[in-house]
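User: I'll paste a sequence; please echo it back and then give the predicted structure.

Assistant: Echoing your sequence first, then the prediction.
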Amino acid sequence: MDEQFLWEDKPELNITPLVDIMLVLLAILMVTTPTIVYQEDITLPKGSKTTKKAQTHTLEIRIDKKKKIYIKNSAYDYEMFPDSFNLLAKQYSKKDTTISIRADKELSYESVMYILKSVKETGFNKISLVTNG
């Protein structure tokens, strides 16, 4: 009779610990996957050194630490620069002219961006900020 009771008990499988372990492993995988860095060796082709890009006209804007603005041999006032530059810009082709801005490192970011915004508003698209190095 004792044997009959042993066979009547049905064993239950508790899978909760297995699910917990799988969720922890999934979380670890999700966290570590974005940090994996893949390095691929790519050899780029050499460019032709015989052809040169057509030279475009470059206009350089220089700004000293006292916010005095110089273009070629002319000096401009900081507050009046947008109006003055708008008149000056009519002499240049806006598609072919490259503007380079050289500003003193002691100027605030806001001052340089004011000049950059003024130049962009006149219609020039090729503008670069020149740095040392």
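The chain has a mean pLDDT of 80. The helical segments are 2-8, 16-32, 81-89, 109-121.
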